[in-house]
């Protein structure tokens, strides 16, 4: 967990930068003059040390003597979750410090606090914005009950490479879906306005480009063209800012050779200048100090200088500002105005949150808040709505409840803690419903439910310095033989009418510091899968994981595959609802699902490459693997079936009001179900090449058996705009546009429209 505390400090370079290299102090805009007046009045009374205290956040487990808080030299704690202790430290800050400034209490509230909801990638697979808002509101309610005032979420990093472990924490590969999710999630955490009761400050992270780590290796450098940065990686951050997010977290890594936490272009020019962000920026843990490790800052003092002048308001973890800014001020390398500009939005946020008026929590209400049955019900609904049905040959699912026996097999079949996913510190594994628990409850005592783990699942980090210990390839079947445990599982399967196999990753296999070179099922799971499939019983594969895995073999040998992601506290109940037809799957993939790890990075919104009339040879191509994913972005099956027809546009030409696209969607089955109607566009020509398809609208609808609904989707002119390397500006360009509407990124219903005049966006 605390690996970031032990990150190595690399060699120090002797790069001297004078403050003259940095223009202007941070811009703070405001639409609330009363708040600004209060903030400025407080700021005027503060000593330098008190100001630097507000710029400092430390880890609770590192501890700080109370007298540091009394002296006003600490603005925030992270990783403190005990309400009693939070009240106690707030008491010290509010009653015993000279200026009575409360602390901000930050925590990674990533997919719930005590009630653990499906991981963010799963929530995105619901394509349900209101659900996403509700989940973060419930998480905020629980977190704020213990005194947490600030969630380090949402993570809005675009992830196009499944090797990157943190794909699990975001909304997937698409900037449009990612932006909509960012907005919904910020609104869920913060409520209608910052300071709304039972809500918390949100923090969009990791600014910017973190998901594009070279090779999918967490913390590795990122190289992004202006085009990718502007059109793919920045839009969800911009959406979060437009939704009023109060905090941005600067990322760890280098982006185009400038560390994100020392990157004045991103933190000042884009965030403050272009987007008028008026909240505050916190660094990721130790990221300011680590500006030395990148070979960017010459020493810790230079790191502090680079951090503050780039636009990082608060240092997380390293106390770099507290220790170094006094001398830098003395030397004239940083000005008091710059320090004030860094402090101002932090103080302002504390006022906005109402912390001065309500610094304490009511400890008697904590238990009820953390065990709210409405949150459990929401967690179950969320896990149902997040699941994606990937295969259902011969309508194997839903399974009948009227069976004699069923085998529930796999290392994750009776897992509790492991199916919560990463960042679940506040959850209680004892409250987690495993898949086995859920199936037992669903079927009751009359059905025999047999269980076998089949194999164990352990993250075994490859000790890179000891080549003798390197395995021939994680997941390779070479040298693997069915062992006693697999044989026992086979016997259990043989003695049952049906088999549900629960395979995938355990919680620590996806997340931060969890990149993988292989996407194979870890350990001996592939062997278990093949041994069970060979028996010839009807097998359903339930996947628990935080990223697409290599299930190419399963995709042709196992008739039913349900992607459950890390489903959280109510996972087992939700999966049982889906398997036995009490709920109908309706989730859709927010990422392209590769056939093979060698296809990564993989994403649907690629530019078209050349077509050769006589041969596919000269198009983008692998000779040993299809170039296309196993399952497309936006794909997901249902127990119902739907047809799309009668695609119409409000006009053949887009006006400044945009265009309205309508389509009839019919449920042609006898089962009520939900469909995600997805709209994609393509700009045929312009000042730069454009992706073959781009998502520009979606809505999740429900249809009764035989019902038809006419669905309308509005495409705004702005939605079609992009930043062009040709003109170096953002515009909706005059061109002809294709539009497709359907049930995935392979939608077939097609129309076209024109934009006659280029509309530049300021
Ligand atoms: C490291 C992670 O990168 C970030 O996402 C998290 O919020 C902070 N540390 C605090 O835990």
Radius of gyration: 26 Å
- Which sequence of strands runs across the widest sheet? 11-16-15-14-12-13
Q: What CATH architecture of the largest domain would you give?
A: Alpha-Beta Barrel
**Stretches with pLDDT under 50, minimum 5 residues:** 1-30
List the helices and strands and how they pair.
Layout (H helix, E strand, L loop, with lengths): L32 H13 L2 H7 L1 E4 L6 H5 L5 E3 L4 H14 L7 E4 L12 H6 L3 H18 L3 E2 L23 H16 L12 E5 L18 H8 L1 H8 L4 E4 L3 E2 L2 E2 L4 H11 L5 E4 L16 H11 L4 E2 L3 H11 L5 H17 L13 H5 L2 H14 L1 E5 L12 E5 L25 H9 L4 E5 L31 H11 L3 E7 L20 H9 L5 E6 L9 H4 L2 E4 L7 H9 L62 E8 L9 E9 L5 E11 L10 E10 L4 E8 L6 E3 L4 E4 L2 E8 L6 E7 L3 E2 L2
Parallel strand pairs: 1-2, 1-10, 2-3, 3-4, 5-6, 6-9, 12-13, 12-14, 14-15, 15-16
Antiparallel strand pairs: 7-8, 11-16, 17-18, 18-21, 19-20, 19-24, 22-23, 23-26, 24-25
Bound molecules: 1-deoxynojirimycin (NOJ).
The site of 1-deoxynojirimycin has 8 residues, from loops.
